[in-house]
Amino acid sequence: MPPAPVPKTAAGIRDRDPDGHGNARATATPVATTTPVSLTPGPTQTLPPGKEVEFQIMAGYPSRFTHDLTITFSGGKGQDLLKKNIDVRVTKSTGEVITETLQPVIGDEITITDAKGENRVEITVSLVTGGTYKVVDKIVEVP
């Protein structure tokens, strides 16, 4: 006698009864999902007056041979009002996304290697008084 057809439920999950004794179990088919990355900069936010901070973004530093991109915290009037971590997100021209953190200490830096081409650099800061601000979102070309 041929096996009975496997019914499909409303959620698209097939009920399986492997031994035919009424102990069916649900199995789901995995679905691959990808979050698209964008090299298009979005809007930035301005910190309140007296709470400004600055960053230096250098393409090709310290080495043009390894296509480095260096991001350095330069300080500012609001440096003492920043929470412990500054979030940095770099989307390389290859689509690879790198997330790092900077400390709110003048001279703290991160270097991204193999960043040849156009890279999207996003920097987000949070104030101890409340509020999160995306202060940098731009394309940086690394030779």
Topology:
Layout: E1 14-16, E2 25-27, E3 54-59, E4 69-75, E5 86-91, E6 97-102, E7 109-112, E8 117-126, E9 132-142
Antiparallel strand pairs: 1-2, 3-4, 4-7, 5-6, 5-8, 8-9
Task: Give the gist of this structure.
With 143 residues, the chain is an all-beta fold. The chain has strands at 14-16, 25-27, 54-59, 69-75, 86-91, 97-102, 109-112, 117-126, 132-142.
How does this structure look, described?
The chain has 143 residues and is an all-beta fold. The chain has a domain at 56-142: Immunoglobulins (Immunoglobulin-like, Sandwich), CATH 2.60.40. It is built from no helices and 9 strands. The chain has strands at 14-16, 25-27, 54-59, 69-75, 86-91, 97-102, 109-112, 117-126, 132-142. A 4-stranded antiparallel sheet has the order 6-5-8-9, with no helix packed on it. The protein is globular. 13% of the residues are buried. Residues 26-50 have a biased composition (Low complexity). Residues 1-50 are annotated as: Disordered. Residues 13-22 have a biased composition (Basic and acidic residues).
